[in-house]
Amino acid sequence: MRKPVTMPQLHAPEAVLSVWFVAPGERVYAGDRVLEILIAGATVDVSAPATGRLVEKLAWPDQPVTPGQVLGYIEEEDV
Fold first, then answer.
1. Phi, then psi, of 70 in degrees rounded to 5
2. CB 8: neighbour CB atoms within 10 A?
3. What is the largest CA-CA distance in the chain?
4. Burial of 43 by CB count in 10 Å (0-12 exposed, 13-18 middle, 19+ buried)?
5. What whole-number distance in Å separates Cα of residue 65 and Cα of residue 46?
6. Which residues are CB-neighbours of 29 under 8 A, at least 6 positions away?
7. pLDDT tens profile 49-63
8. Domains with residue ranges and CATH for the chain
């Protein structure tokens, strides 16, 4: 089952995706840092919502992102 990687509900006027730490096909574990968001001079890490493989990216570095936006998908795997 696919789990969305979503932009957290941050109360900031602007947010930009900074960097992905994993590439499509790479295995991640629930709670692993998968990407970084820049807000008002600070960085926020976004964690994997499930254990599996990153199968799709829907946002790219330097792209503005909004709270709740789906940034990618992880295909769940049994551990």
1. -80, 120
2. 15
3. 39
4. exposed
5. 12
6. 48, 51, 79
7. 999 999 999 999 999
8. 2-76 (2.40.50.100)
* Number of other residues whose CB lies within 10 A of the CB of residue 60: 10
Rounded Cα–Cα distance for residues 9 and 55 (Å): 23
Provide mean pLDDT across the span 10-17.
87
Q: How many CB atoms lie within 10 A of CB 38?
A: 18
Q: Give the pLDDT score at 79.
A: 64
pLDDT at 11: 81
Residue 36 is given by DSSP the state E
